[in-house]
Write a structure and sequence with these properties.
Strand order of the largest sheet: 1-2-5-4-3
CATH topology of the largest domain: Beta Polymerase, domain 2
Mean pLDDT: 94
Largest sheet: 5 strands, mixed
Strand content: 15-25%
CATH class of the largest domain: Alpha Beta
Number of domains: 2
CATH architecture of the largest domain: 2-Layer Sandwich
Shape: globular
Helix content: 55-70%
Amino acid sequence: MKSLFHAAYDLQLFFEQRGWRYCFIGGIALQRWGRPRLTRDIDVTLLTNFLREAEYIDELLAAYMPRIPDARSFALANRVVLAKTDDGIGIDIALGGLPFEEEVIRRASLFEYLPGISLKTCSAEDLIIFKAFANRTQDWADIETIAVKQGRLDLAYIMKHLVPMCDLKEEPEIITRLSNILEQFGCCG
């Protein structure tokens, strides 16, 4: 796990040297807000806006090895750069540009994972939004650990962003399931 945090810190320095706006999401953020579990990759949102993705992609792929053939085309089509460190640690870099992603990055804050290693992670609420929207079995288990560890959460903020996303996805059951979990663990009210 220490090597993962060091790799994430190196990536953070890479972003900061360029003045790029970003925050860590996924397993690294879960280490802060929920119950730590083994994670083998780094998930990060990088604010690129729209129409400038190629500049970011090219610079990222010049510094980090691609994990798939034709990673540039994949990144342009899917808005995610699939790369890895020299040590083989996977890095998923989501190319953000939506107002919600800007807000996630604006709300992000530093957390010290190891002495001298502080990483900028999304908020607990934003992590819940990402995980609920993904709607995978492990994500729901992670949401429960966040609810237990955090207690009170800003339910209005979560619903403000998650409801329209679930409407677009045509999966309103996500909202019901999340509301039940947060109520069960006393996270709202």
